[in-house]
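Q: Please design a sequence for this.
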């Protein structure tokens, strides 16, 4: 296969190309797609009292300065999710948006412990999300799968308990991940539960190297045996790690607007995505918690390309990486990558 002729794509057409190109999203917390409008609608439907008088007051409260201050509001927003239909509605709102943005494949993280801790049954959470994923395939042409995340600020025993509760529904999610407050909660804390999940045949991912050090990326790989690193931008400070990630083709799910909002980078122009690609890493762009971090997937692409000067070649690489880094089957990956090539050929014509 010959590469598209990137030089023939004028820079001013980049935003249009970034929006039009088929892509996968591999790092989206479905609870982080809850828009203030939906939070208010669900609060009303379920009779939940919110600490904010109106939608605007809630939006105004989204002025976090770090991961922890974000998580505090994030968990408050999730408190309106009670019935199976609430989980469906939340996922469906995101999946419709994803379809509009030419997302062909998405792997949704969900945090069951945020809900089971409030007395919501595991089946309520998973069945609502799963039904939305099934409808997305049928009605939107979006291939969606679920990844259950353990909250790392809680104990490994709590993770085990969560896994046990979810196992009767195991055909409805494809893998497990590790999220929430990274600093002080290294991957080593979850070695036994990840070993068990590996044994059970789940796909494995973990957040590492967002605010935490490159050492957490090493231990996510070596102690947890994950197949993909969520964030991983701190890997840049460790040359041996960078070589390993490139050699083993371990995908990084990078989230530029999230990094900006949580001050992992002070300015989008300083973002290291271009360097990660330059070093041959399978880096991807993702939205993380789009309702909270100022943009869905295409916004992440457009603002990052605008700030960093990345061009059509990197756009093609990122779209291709997003599919090859996904957990979809090989045939689907090939089909989507062909579609990426066809889109670039059209823009280069
Ligand atoms: Zn995340």
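A: Design:
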């Amino acid at each position: 296969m010959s590469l598209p002729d990137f030089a023939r794509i004028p820079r001013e057409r980049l935003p249009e190309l970034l929006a039009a190109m088929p892509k996968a999203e591999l790092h989206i917390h479905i609870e982080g797609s809850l828009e203030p409008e939906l939070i208010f609608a669900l609060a009303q439907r379920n009779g939940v009292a919110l600490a904010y008088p109106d939608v605007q007051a809630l939006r105004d409260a989204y002025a976090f300065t770090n991961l922890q201050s974000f998580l505090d509001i994030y968990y408050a927003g999730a408190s309106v999710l009670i019935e199976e239909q609430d989980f469906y509605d939340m996922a469906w709102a995101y999946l419709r948006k994803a379809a509009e943005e030419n997302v062909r494949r998405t792997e949704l993280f969900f945090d069951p412990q945020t809900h089971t801790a409030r007395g919501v049954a595991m089946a309520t959470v998973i069945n609502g999300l799963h039904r939305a994923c099934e409808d997305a395939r049928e009605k939107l042409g979006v291939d969606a799968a679920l990844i259950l995340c353990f909250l790392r600020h809680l104990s490994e025993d709590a993770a085990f308990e969560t896994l046990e509760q979810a196992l009767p529904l195991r055909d409805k999610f494809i893998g497990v991940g590790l999220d929430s407050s990274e600093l002080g909660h290294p991957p080593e804390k979850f070695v036994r539960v990840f070993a068990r999940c590996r044994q059970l045949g789940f796909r494995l991912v973990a957040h590492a190297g967002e605010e935490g050090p490159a050492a957490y990326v090493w231990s996510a790989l070596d102690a947890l045996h994950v197949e993909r690193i969520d964030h991983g931008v701190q890997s840049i400070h460790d040359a041996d790690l960078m070589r390993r990630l490139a050699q083993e083709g371990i995908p990084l799910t990078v989230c530029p607007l999230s990094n900006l909002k949580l001050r992992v980078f002070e300015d989008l122009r300083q973002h290291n995505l271009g360097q990660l690609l330059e070093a041959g890493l399978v880096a991807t762009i993702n939205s993380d918690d789009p309702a909270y971090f100022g943009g869905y997937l295409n916004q992440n692409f457009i603002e990052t390309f605008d700030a960093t000067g990345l061009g059509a070649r990197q756009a093609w690489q990122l779209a291709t990486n997003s599919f090859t880094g996904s957990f979809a089957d090989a045939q689907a990956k090939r089909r989507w990558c062909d579609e990426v090539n066809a889109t670039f050929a059209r823009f280069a014509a």
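Q: Thanks. Anything notable?
A: The longest strand covers residues 143-151. The pocket of zinc ion is lined by residues 27, 29, 179, 207, 230, 288 (CB under 6 Å).
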